[in-house]
Amino acid sequence: MADYVLAIDQGTTSSRAIVFDHSGRIVSTGQLEHDQIFPKAGWVEHNAEQIWSNVREVVGLALTRGNLAHTDLAAIGITNQRETAVVWDKNTGKPVYNAIVWQDTRTQAIVDELGGSEGADKYKAIVGLPLATYFSGPKVKWILDNVEGAREAAERGDLLFGNTDTWVLWNMTGGSDGGVHVTDVTNASRTMLMDLDTLSWREDIAADMGIPMSMLPEIRSSSEVYGQGRPRGLVPGVPIAGILGDQQAATFGQACFEVGHAKNTYGTGNFMLLNTGTEKVPSKNGLLTTVCYKIGDQPTRYALEGSIAVTGSLIQWLRDNLGMFEDAPDVEWLARKVEDNGGAYFVPAFSGLFAPYWRPDARGALVGLTRFVNRNHIARAALEAVAYQTREVVDAMKLDSGVELTELKVDGGMVANELLMQFQADQLGVDVVRPKVAETTALGAAYAAGIAVGFWNGEEDVIANWAEDKRWTPAAAEDERERLYRSWKKAVTKTFDWVDADVQ
């Protein structure tokens, strides 16, 4: 009997496979990191073939560690790093270039050219997104413009495009031998190519970007059977039945089904989503309007999103580039050695600034330094930067939606950092709540797949399974909170206008 659902979480730094039981409990896992490729400043790439190899291996690890066979699985769900673009040959199954990662900024000139006299908001009323290097569409144009023979192959109909959800699904269902070329509405909403009202590709925008329609996957809901595992694969015949972009998956896994419910994921970057229900809310304050989820034939649910490029990756940078500590969790140990940040503020605009500023000209800055500041203060300033950036997004959401946040559900790797979570509650002035199952991204994808095949009955089962693990209540004085935030806002302005027109 099929008593479990498997989720594949294809993330920015690693690929994971997690098996869940009916109560939403983790049964077994497998995880492998993939290479982070930095060919030039501002360029970030992944080897898509390495990702696919790792996905196969982690699925095998999770099944082996759980002492399970593929016949024990009712369904498989996929969640993924969004906006990371893969272009491959449908006949050979080979990518024509490395995957260009969501953090990559090489497409700035393309973005500027596309905007022309109309600027960054040229397509925003249609797709909910400003023109920015963040999104997939301009990355595809870059590949077609810069990889020898790619445009000709695309015009012949030989090339396919997808975010990494589509790449994994296509390979799992047969690859060049009948692989299913599909994405879901949440991933499609991150390409700059999908109309948020009709949930279909816009031929005119694709034409502006020089992307043949034949490259684009079919858009489907987030919860339905797309295909089955290939006959000679690890999961032959198992229905692949759920796809959600990672942040939408976390929103689903956190049971944020009501209008006004919000979650914040602390990962490589930070991503906050606020459920706006069946209403598409345009943002006037630097947020994105996106699809939250669509379950089968049910109405589409929309969200406002605040995307922050660098949070967890700032801690990795302190570890890997500066050698400040050996293990990422050690940042909390350092930060606890001091009472405060010593006047230091760290604005990690490594890829420019995302929400709510959208300033590609910004670059990282460590300001407010005196000889008093030591590495412990810098560690604390890095953690505080995560909370300040989140507060900026919360403020923007309040202005756009009129909804006052009453508490914030949190997930992702950094929620284990209790100093950060307390400081976050202090900065927001509301409770911060961590669930018992912190792997909400994978869990959301599992729920979407399980609902599609009847393993779970729907949102009510997700709500019933959700349980609180820990809650942090604000403890800081109001005047101190505002003083710190005021200095942060000042620090942010010091990062603006760093990149000149003649600097790549």
Automatic annotation (TrEMBL):
InterPro entries: ATPase_NBD (IPR043129), Carb_kinase_FGGY (IPR000577), Carb_kinase_FGGY_CS (IPR018483), FGGY_C (IPR018485), FGGY_N (IPR018484), Glycerol_kin (IPR005999). Inhibited by fructose 1,6-bisphosphate (FBP). CDD domains: ASKHA_NBD_FGGY_GK. Residues 263-452 form the Carbohydrate kinase FGGY C-terminal domain. Its EC number is 2.7.1.30. Sn-glycerol 3-phosphate binds at T12, R82, E83, Y134, D246. It catalyses: glycerol + ATP = sn-glycerol 3-phosphate + ADP + H(+). Keywords: ATP-binding, Glycerol metabolism, Kinase, Nucleotide-binding, Transferase. ADP binds at T12, R16, T268, G312, G413, N417. NCBIfam families: glycerol_kin, PRK00047.1. This is Glycerol kinase. The lineage of its organism: Bacteria, Bacillati, Actinomycetota, Actinomycetes, Micrococcales.
